[in-house]
Amino acid sequence: MPKINGLILGAVIIRLFFATFFYHPDLRVYYFHGQFLKTGVLNIYSYLEQNRASLPNSNRFNYPPLAYLFFGSWYTVSSVIAGPGLDTWINDWSGQDVYHPQLFFYQLLLKLPYFALDLLSLSVLLTFARSHPQKKFLSAAWLFNPLTLYGIYAVGQFDLLPALLTLLAAALVVRGRLTKASLLLVIGGLLKTYPLLLLPFVLIRSKSWRESLTILLPSIALWLTVQAPFFASPGYSQSVLNSGLANRIFSAGLDLGGGIVISPFVAVYLVILAYSFFARRAKLNLIPEFFAVTILVVLLTPFHAQWLIWSLPFALILLSRSPSLWLPLTAVMASAFGLILLLPDIYVSVGLLAGLNPFLKTIPALPPLIKAQILLRSTLVVTGFIAIFKSLKYES
Amino acid sequence: MNRRLVFLTLAYLLLPLAALLALTLFAIRRIPDVSQPHQDALASIYNEKPFVQHITPRHNGFSTAIIHLKNASLTNTDPLSFILSNDVGQTLRLIQISGRNIGDPDSVRFQFDPIPDSAGKSYTITLQTPYTNFDQPKIEAGVANSGDLTYELYYRPQSRAELISSVLASLLPKLSSLQLLILLTLVFFVSYLTLSRKLHTSGV
Predict the structure, then answer these.
(1) Among B1, B37, B198, beta carbon nearest to A95
(2) Do A119 and B195 touch (CB under 8 A)?
(3) Residue B9 and residue A144: Cβ atoms within 8 Å?
């Protein structure tokens, strides 16, 4: 099968290239916090609050507890493989980390879990294919799309993990396993908050209030079991409950005058939920809803690059079924990428190559290009809404 | 493999490398020289107490000093002078900025015409705020426990050959890591075989 071998070869080589040679300081921040797990620290929030003054990096850990467990576990394994040099590197915040002779080895090692998550995501994605051409399309689109390479392998963000859980949840809903699906969304919500936004769409698929409760109660119990021990911890509420997502959803307000402000995200989210309840309640295919909500975050908030990964699997499934989505989805991706590259942060573009040439860090970030940002944001919002409407219409 | 995917793979590999080459050759204006990165305290600067720091750049073309300053609550709006003098006290470069341009805190960049023969020579950086009295809000400079200023010096490469040799000197040790080579090989084969099996069993 030379065709497939060629496809696999290309996919593996570009992944290795991006994972090894692209540098982003966020990866070090995550594992800097994760390193404390192997020393027995279970409550990272209070540990950081108490020791911030003496630590070489004063960043907060802004994610729910399972994210700490994820990074801490893999760091423990990595430090056994790499030896004590990894500890020295992860604790060096003098700006010299990009000169370290083992930089590429450490980057590849710390990004290894992403390879597994990437392949698992592809496996789950293929279960949604209804025909051989759809399988071929999904394989190629997943393995060669720029978002995965940029967000996961270059920037080193872990958003693929909650994205995989939401995809698995969607697959379980198709099989009618609503309780398991909602539990997976809660687990996703214990890594990043956004999968909780998808939970109501699963709940409204239940056939009665009693069934809703049997779905909801285990989910709440799971969420509380993991989160409750941290509620009283200093720094927890500031780090997690006031997360970037929650702040960004509510910070973008539409002033109606007279002191009345509405959140466009919340308003449109409720419209999608209502539509799902009244027009699609009997359908167990939640792909259009999951796509709509995850892309809505990107459309109506000042998003981070990695947030695009949340909607990627759903967008590809929809695209494999409805080729008419090509144009709006391509426009969404292009305008979102454009907005990302215009951010005044060198690590979204030039800085990613700082591992190969550390002197690139001295290139100043772009000045704000307001008109270009407005143009791209407008394109993003319009084409994003077209994609949402078309996908809901097609799948209905 | 589909031609489009071959093209895409090559684009993913070659475009970043082309960007790296272009940026290295045409966009880099300064390269890090010596630095004192530690900051343990803050030292106030006012009219009777300028801050004086002796430095010795390692390379020719010394052109920039980044100094960590703090203008608490942005209240100081007085001028601050950056004076670079040589070992006999002769002023070589003088830059004046306003307190309005200093953040809370801020890494302030003082950039000047490169000094061609700076390698190994002693210079003095003096930070002065002649119009700020002791009892006024003051600009503060980051200092280490040793009393040294927190600073980073940069130089402008004298030629492209010097620039490329500096980049290669940093890059080659990273590429020649044996552990990296072993890990790359392992991940390549495991990923290739797993993906190959997955796609075959899925009937792709």
Answers:
(1) B37
(2) yes
(3) yes
Amino acid A376 reads: L
Q: Can you say whether residue B73 is alpha, beta or left, with left for phi > 0 and alpha for psi between -120 and 50 degrees?
A: left
Number of domains in chain A: 1
Q: What is the pLDDT of residues A90-118, one digit of tens each?
A: 999 877 899 999 999 999 999 999 999 99
Question: Rounded to an integer, what distance in angstroms lies between the CA atom of residue A64 and that of residue A50?
Answer: 18
Give a yes or no: residue A351 inside a domain.
yes
- The secondary structure of A107-141 as a DSSP string is HHHHTHHHHHHHHHHHHHHHTT--SHHHHHHHHHH
Interface predicted TM-score of the whole assembly (ipTM), two decimals:
0.91
Name beta bridge partners: B86: B123
Reported as half-sphere exposure (CB side, CA atoms, 13 A), residue A175 has a value of 11
Q: Which residues of chain B are within 8 Å of residue A12 when distances are taken between CB atoms?
A: 188, 191-192, 195
CA distance A396 to chain B (A): 27
pLDDT tens sequence across A347-360: 999 999 999 999 99
pLDDT in tens, A191-230: 999 999 999 999 999 999 899 999 999 999 999 999 999 9
Task: Report yes or no: A130 and A146 within 8 Å, Cβ to Cβ.
Answer: no
B8:A144 CB<8 A = yes
> What is the b/e burial string over B158-194, where b = at least 16 CB atoms within 10 angstroms of the residue's CB?
eeeebbeebbeebbeebeebebbeebbeebeeebbeb
Query: Is residue B64 within a helix (H) or strand (E), and if so which, with residue range?
Result: strand B62-71
Query: Which chain B residues have a beta carbon less than 8 Å from that of A355?
Result: 174
pTM recorded for the entire structure: 0.88
Determine, yes or no, domain membership for A321.
yes
Which structural domain range is residue A265 located in? Answer: 113-395
Q: Which of A3, A89, A105, A350 to mutate to test the interface with B (most CBs of B within 10 A)?
A: A105
Q: Residue A387 is encoded by which pair of tokens?
A: 């994609």
Residues near A211 by Cβ (< 8 Å), separated by ≥ 6?
A178
Cβ partners under 8 Å of residue A66, min gap 6: A187, A190, A191, A226
Give the 3-state secondary structure of residue B102. Answer: coil
- Whether A236 is in a domain gets the answer yes
- Interface list for A 92-111 with B (CB within 8 A): 94-95, 99-105, 108-109
CA dihedral A371, A377, A378, A381 (to 10 degrees): 180
Asked if residues B94 and B83 have their Cβ atoms less than 8 Å apart, the reply is yes
A139 CB neighbours in chain B (<8 A) are: 199, 202, 204
Q: Minimal Cα distance from A92: which residue of B? A: B37
